Amino acid sequence: MQKTLYTRQYQLLLELLKDFRKQAGVTQAQLAERLQVPQSEVSKCESGSRRLDLIELKLWVEAMGGSAGAFLQVFDERVQADVVTGGGDEAKQLLRARPPRLVK
Question: In whole angstroms, what is the distance from residue 35 CA to residue 28 CA?
Answer without folding.
Answer: 10
